[in-house]
Design goal:
There is one protein chain. By secondary structure, the chain is of the alpha/beta class. The chain has seven helices and five strands. It has a five-stranded mixed beta sheet, with helices on both faces. β2 (47-57) and β3 form a beta hairpin.
Length: 208
């Protein structure tokens, strides 16, 4: 309820602003999968290190229409963190400023629905940076692909409490892992998982 009220307030406040169109209902046929990488997971103030997004149209993942941004970070991550978060080869001191990266993300995403794997975490980090700079949270409709998979799994196995790990789900669905531990690679893999789940649902509908 609080989220709904806040979104309505944001819509009124920005009705005549540069981003008023973000609050309009989306009527197209595209979705956007997003993924981020942060430094300081588990800390009180994790820093954005990279943001990626890729469009999905129908049954196609539009890798040619993607966004892959690296940001300037003041923190110096450990070598282990660099490996685990897919930050190898990234100059964390020469990337975009947070505000510039968020502006590019907003322009790319628009008011399309957003998808992601455990999307709530990504949105919490992005909105924490968006609100003080732009005055609103992302108002887009959302689909958490991990939760979508878990709901389907529980129909056959009600005792299951949590979705399997990302890599395991990709393996079970015969989806290739694309650039694992990079924001863009995980966004593309998440898009493929989503399309596979949608295809399975359509197939079940035809034969039910």
């Amino acid at each position: 309820m609080i989220k709904v009220l806040r979104r309505a307030a944001d819509r009124r406040r920005h009705a005549n602003g540069n981003y008023a169109w973000l609050f309009h209902p989306y009527t197209g046929d595209e979705m956007v999968v997003i993924d981020i990488r942060v430094i300081g997971v588990g800390s009180r103030s994790p820093q954005l290190a990279s943001i990626a997004a890729v469009k999905v149209r129908g049954e196609r993942v539009l890798t040619s229409e993607s966004l892959d941004l690296r940001l300037t970070c003041s923190a110096s991550p450990s070598a282990e963190l660099v490996r685990s978060q897919g930050l190898q080869g990234m100059d964390l001191s020469g990337g975009l400023a947070v505000e510039d990266a968020l502006e590019r993300l907003l322009d790319f995403v628009g008011n399309r629905p957003l998808l992601g794997w455990h999307l709530g975490f990504d949105l919490a980090i992005l909105n924490r940076e968006l609100r003080p700079r732009f005055g609103f949270d992302l108002p887009n409709a959302t689909i958490d692909v991990a939760q979508s998979y878990l709901r389907r799994l529980r129909r056959r196995h009600p005792e299951v409490e949590a979705a399997p790990r990302f890599e395991k789900v990709a393996e079970l669905l015969d989806v290739p892992l694309m650039g694992r531990h990079t924001a863009l690679g995980d966004a593309v893999t998440t898009a493929l998982i989503f399309l596979r789940l949608e295809h399975q649902s359509s197939a079940l509908g035809r034969y039910s």
